[in-house]
Specification:
Protein name: DUF2314 domain-containing protein
Strand content: 25-35%
InterPro entries: DUF2314 (IPR018756)
Organism: Hymenobacter coccineus
Oligomer: single chain
Pfam families: DUF2314
Shape: globular
Number of domains: 1
Order of helices and strands: EEHEEEEEEH
Distance between the termini: 22 Å
Length: 166
Protein backbone atom coordinates (compact mmCIF):
# COMPACT_ATOMS: atom_id res chain seq x y z
CA UNK A 1 0.00 0.00 0.00
CA UNK A 2 1.25 3.45 -0.79
CA UNK A 3 1.35 5.93 2.04
CA UNK A 4 1.71 9.56 0.97
CA UNK A 5 4.90 10.76 -0.70
CA UNK A 6 6.91 8.83 1.91
CA UNK A 7 6.14 5.68 -0.11
CA UNK A 8 5.27 3.36 2.74
CA UNK A 9 3.93 -0.08 1.85
CA UNK A 10 1.81 -1.23 4.79
CA UNK A 11 -0.83 -3.84 5.38
CA UNK A 12 -2.51 -5.71 8.20
CA UNK A 13 -1.86 -9.45 8.35
CA UNK A 14 -4.27 -10.89 10.93
CA UNK A 15 -7.13 -9.81 13.22
CA UNK A 16 -6.31 -7.24 15.92
CA UNK A 17 -6.82 -8.18 19.54
CA UNK A 18 -8.84 -4.98 20.21
CA UNK A 19 -12.38 -5.89 19.16
CA UNK A 20 -15.16 -3.34 19.69
CA UNK A 21 -16.69 -3.21 23.15
CA UNK A 22 -20.04 -4.58 21.91
CA UNK A 23 -18.57 -7.79 20.46
CA UNK A 24 -17.28 -11.15 21.62
CA UNK A 25 -13.59 -10.90 22.46
CA UNK A 26 -11.00 -12.71 20.39
CA UNK A 27 -9.44 -15.75 21.98
CA UNK A 28 -6.17 -15.01 23.80
CA UNK A 29 -4.39 -17.38 21.43
CA UNK A 30 -5.90 -15.91 18.23
CA UNK A 31 -3.26 -14.91 15.67
CA UNK A 32 -1.90 -11.45 16.46
CA UNK A 33 -2.02 -8.57 14.03
CA UNK A 34 1.44 -8.16 12.53
CA UNK A 35 1.62 -4.98 10.48
CA UNK A 36 4.38 -5.02 7.91
CA UNK A 37 5.99 -2.02 6.25
CA UNK A 38 8.42 -1.57 3.43
CA UNK A 39 9.87 1.87 2.84
CA UNK A 40 11.01 2.57 -0.70
CA UNK A 41 13.27 5.25 -2.12
CA UNK A 42 11.00 7.06 -4.55
CA UNK A 43 7.54 7.15 -6.08
CA UNK A 44 8.44 4.79 -8.95
CA UNK A 45 9.79 2.23 -6.47
CA UNK A 46 6.65 2.64 -4.38
CA UNK A 47 4.39 2.03 -7.36
CA UNK A 48 6.43 -1.03 -8.36
CA UNK A 49 6.33 -2.43 -4.82
CA UNK A 50 2.59 -1.84 -4.62
CA UNK A 51 2.00 -3.53 -7.98
CA UNK A 52 4.15 -6.51 -6.96
CA UNK A 53 2.24 -6.85 -3.69
CA UNK A 54 -1.13 -6.66 -5.49
CA UNK A 55 -0.01 -9.34 -7.94
CA UNK A 56 1.26 -11.55 -5.12
CA UNK A 57 -2.00 -11.43 -3.14
CA UNK A 58 -4.32 -11.64 -6.18
CA UNK A 59 -4.87 -15.44 -5.89
CA UNK A 60 -5.74 -15.08 -2.18
CA UNK A 61 -8.23 -12.30 -2.97
CA UNK A 62 -9.78 -14.41 -5.72
CA UNK A 63 -10.25 -17.35 -3.32
CA UNK A 64 -11.64 -15.08 -0.59
CA UNK A 65 -14.15 -13.46 -2.92
CA UNK A 66 -15.23 -16.84 -4.31
CA UNK A 67 -16.00 -18.11 -0.80
CA UNK A 68 -17.40 -14.81 0.55
CA UNK A 69 -21.07 -15.61 -0.25
CA UNK A 70 -20.98 -18.72 1.96
CA UNK A 71 -19.25 -16.83 4.77
CA UNK A 72 -21.76 -13.99 4.47
CA UNK A 73 -24.67 -16.46 4.70
CA UNK A 74 -23.19 -17.99 7.84
CA UNK A 75 -22.87 -14.54 9.38
CA UNK A 76 -26.43 -13.57 8.46
CA UNK A 77 -27.78 -16.84 9.89
CA UNK A 78 -25.90 -16.20 13.13
CA UNK A 79 -22.49 -17.50 14.05
CA UNK A 80 -22.09 -19.71 17.13
CA UNK A 81 -21.45 -17.95 20.41
CA UNK A 82 -17.96 -16.53 20.70
CA UNK A 83 -17.25 -16.44 16.96
CA UNK A 84 -16.54 -13.13 15.23
CA UNK A 85 -16.82 -12.22 11.55
CA UNK A 86 -14.33 -9.83 9.97
CA UNK A 87 -13.83 -8.60 6.46
CA UNK A 88 -10.70 -7.02 5.05
CA UNK A 89 -11.06 -3.76 3.17
CA UNK A 90 -9.06 -0.61 2.52
CA UNK A 91 -9.59 2.83 3.97
CA UNK A 92 -7.85 5.97 2.80
CA UNK A 93 -7.12 9.54 3.72
CA UNK A 94 -8.39 12.32 1.44
CA UNK A 95 -4.88 12.89 0.06
CA UNK A 96 -4.56 9.25 -1.03
CA UNK A 97 -2.66 7.10 1.48
CA UNK A 98 -4.55 3.93 2.24
CA UNK A 99 -4.34 0.98 4.57
CA UNK A 100 -5.72 -2.54 4.48
CA UNK A 101 -7.73 -3.20 7.65
CA UNK A 102 -9.88 -5.76 9.38
CA UNK A 103 -13.45 -4.67 10.05
CA UNK A 104 -15.58 -6.49 12.62
CA UNK A 105 -18.90 -6.83 10.79
CA UNK A 106 -21.89 -5.47 12.67
CA UNK A 107 -24.49 -5.47 9.89
CA UNK A 108 -24.75 -6.58 6.26
CA UNK A 109 -27.69 -5.41 4.17
CA UNK A 110 -27.66 -6.02 0.44
CA UNK A 111 -24.40 -4.64 -0.91
CA UNK A 112 -23.62 -2.49 2.17
CA UNK A 113 -21.49 -3.66 5.09
CA UNK A 114 -21.21 -1.84 8.39
CA UNK A 115 -18.63 -2.62 11.03
CA UNK A 116 -15.92 -1.49 13.40
CA UNK A 117 -12.30 -1.01 12.35
CA UNK A 118 -10.48 -3.71 14.31
CA UNK A 119 -6.94 -3.00 13.10
CA UNK A 120 -4.44 -0.64 14.66
CA UNK A 121 -3.95 2.12 12.10
CA UNK A 122 -0.41 3.07 11.13
CA UNK A 123 -0.79 5.01 7.87
CA UNK A 124 -4.30 6.43 7.60
CA UNK A 125 -4.95 9.30 10.00
CA UNK A 126 -8.60 10.26 9.29
CA UNK A 127 -9.97 7.04 10.83
CA UNK A 128 -9.56 5.45 14.25
CA UNK A 129 -9.52 1.92 15.58
CA UNK A 130 -13.04 0.84 16.64
CA UNK A 131 -14.63 3.50 14.40
CA UNK A 132 -17.91 2.44 12.79
CA UNK A 133 -17.68 2.53 8.98
CA UNK A 134 -19.93 1.53 6.08
CA UNK A 135 -18.69 0.34 2.69
CA UNK A 136 -19.66 -1.70 -0.35
CA UNK A 137 -19.23 -5.46 -0.62
CA UNK A 138 -17.20 -4.77 -3.79
CA UNK A 139 -14.55 -3.24 -1.48
CA UNK A 140 -14.00 -6.52 0.40
CA UNK A 141 -10.69 -8.27 -0.23
CA UNK A 142 -10.88 -11.09 2.33
CA UNK A 143 -12.93 -12.45 5.24
CA UNK A 144 -12.12 -14.13 8.54
CA UNK A 145 -14.20 -16.01 11.10
CA UNK A 146 -12.40 -16.04 14.43
CA UNK A 147 -13.30 -18.81 16.89
CA UNK A 148 -13.05 -18.83 20.70
CA UNK A 149 -10.27 -21.45 20.58
CA UNK A 150 -8.03 -19.08 18.58
CA UNK A 151 -8.48 -20.83 15.25
CA UNK A 152 -9.82 -19.04 12.23
CA UNK A 153 -11.40 -19.63 8.85
CA UNK A 154 -10.68 -17.54 5.80
CA UNK A 155 -7.98 -14.88 6.18
CA UNK A 156 -6.51 -16.02 2.88
CA UNK A 157 -4.29 -12.93 2.53
CA UNK A 158 -3.03 -13.15 6.10
CA UNK A 159 -2.20 -16.84 5.73
CA UNK A 160 -0.29 -16.13 2.50
CA UNK A 161 1.69 -13.37 4.18
CA UNK A 162 2.37 -15.59 7.21
CA UNK A 163 3.64 -18.37 4.91
CA UNK A 164 5.93 -15.88 3.18
CA UNK A 165 7.52 -14.86 6.49
CA UNK A 166 8.40 -18.42 7.52
Amino acid sequence: MIASFAQLLAFQATAQQNAPVNSAPLAPNAPADRPMSVVVADKADSEAASAAFEQHIAPAIKKARATLPQAKNRFLQGLPSGQAFYVTTRISDPNGPYEQVFVRVKQWQGTRVQGFIASQLDVVKTYQQNQLITFSTSDIFDWTISRPDGSEEGNFIGKLIDADSQ
